[in-house]
């Protein structure tokens, strides 16, 4: 069962949702990991570089949508049989990092290398993510780290949740700048996936943050 879910999830993460479903097509089919007018020159440059790396198939761009497709919700329900996923609330639910308007919040695109178990996220943090004036809020940085590490873990192990996340904030990240989050699956022990990352400037000279994490694969035999 877990294997099947992992396969479904990987297929969704790598290729996007099946078309032709009765879900709102705007919500399902707008891929937010493609360039939009709010992306600055650096973001576009990095995106083009990774698209080039993707040409030989070693890296894959991960599509990204505001909402989960119905089949994804069903995948997760297996692990939470008692959870009250109310229809009305679920119809309004959005992925947190995609819930802010274009350009003001999290602008990002992720690429995954399946052979190396690496995920790279290029991230432009918009003006509504401010903490200390002129710089990104630590919670916004943590959100993006959790999402990128999560993607790296899930693409390897299937449905997993963050159990532990440790972040060292080394330098403040300027608002509206573009940074690169480099994630790496370090090891797998049973249901535990150990994933780490660093955040660097485009020229790689500045180390902004480092993080280590433990993701735990959900066990369908356990009632959550
Ligand atoms: C579009 C797609 C986007 C994808 C990216 C999204 C990324 C976002 C990910 C998240 O933010 S998830 C939300 C935040 N996380 C949570 O809400 C998780 C809440 N915690 C839980 O639900 C459970 O604690 C958890 C599922 C993580 C583990 O519960 P289990 O009952 O399945 O684990 P169990 O207690 O059996 O422990 C299994 C192993 O994990 C270890 N473990 C459990 N909790 C741990 C912990 N907190 N830290 C370190 N290790 C832990 C535990 O020691 C054990 O190791 P061993 O196998 O060696 O004995």
From TrEMBL:
Cell compartment(s), UniProt: Cell projection, Ruffle membrane; Cytoplasm; Mitochondrion inner membrane; Mitochondrion intermembrane space
InterPro entries assigned: HotDog_dom_sf, THEM4/THEM5_acyl-CoA_thioest, Thioestr_dom
GO CC annotations on file: mitochondrial inner membrane; mitochondrial intermembrane space; ruffle membrane
Known EC number: 3.1.2.2
A Pfam family of this chain: 4HBT
Listed transmembrane segments: none
Membrane topology according to the record: Peripheral membrane protein
Any one GO biological process: apoptotic process
Keywords: Apoptosis, Cell membrane, Cell projection, Cytoplasm, Fatty acid metabolism, Hydrolase, Lipid metabolism, Membrane, Mitochondrion, Mitochondrion inner membrane, Transit peptide
Thioesterase domain boundaries: 134-206
Catalytic reactions of this protein: hexadecanoyl-CoA + H2O = hexadecanoate + CoA + H(+); octanoyl-CoA + H2O = octanoate + CoA + H(+); dodecanoyl-CoA + H2O = dodecanoate + CoA + H(+); decanoyl-CoA + H2O = decanoate + CoA + H(+)
Main location, first listed in the record: membrane
Gene Ontology molecular-function annotations: hydrolase activity
Coiled coil ranges: none
Family statement drawn from the similarity comment of this UniProt entry: Belongs to the THEM4/THEM5 thioesterase family.
Protein name: Acyl-coenzyme A thioesterase THEM4
Source species taxonomy: Eukaryota, Metazoa, Chordata, Craniata, Vertebrata
């Amino acid at each position: 069962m877990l294997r099947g879910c992992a396969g479904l999830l990987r297929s969704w993460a790598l290729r996007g949702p099946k078309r032709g479903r009765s879900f709102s097509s705007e919500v399902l089919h707008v891929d937010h990991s493609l360039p939009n007018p709010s992306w600055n020159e650096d973001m576009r440059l990095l995106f083009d570089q990774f698209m080039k790396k993707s040409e030989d198939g070693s890296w894959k761009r991960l599509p990204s949508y505001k909402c989960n497709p119905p089949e994804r919700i069903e995948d997760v329900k297996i692990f939470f049989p008692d959870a009250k996923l109310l229809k009305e609330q679920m119809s309004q639910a959005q992925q947190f990092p995609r819930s802010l308007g274009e350009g003001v919040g999290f602008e990002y695109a992720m690429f995954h290398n399946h052979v190396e178990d690496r995920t790279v996220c290029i991230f432009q943090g918009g003006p509504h993510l401010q903490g200390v004036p002129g710089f990104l809020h630590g919670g916004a940085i943590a959100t993006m780290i959790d999402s990128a590490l999560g993607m790296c873990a899930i693409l390897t192990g299937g449905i997993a949740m963050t159990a532990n996340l440790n972040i060292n904030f080394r330098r403040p990240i300027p608002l509206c700048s573009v940074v690169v989050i480099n994630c790496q699956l370090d090891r797998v022990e049973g249901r535990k996936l150990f994933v780490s990352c660093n955040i660097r400037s485009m020229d790689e000279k500045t180390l902004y943050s480092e993080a280590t994490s433990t993701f735990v694969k959900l066990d369908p035999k356990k009632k959550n």
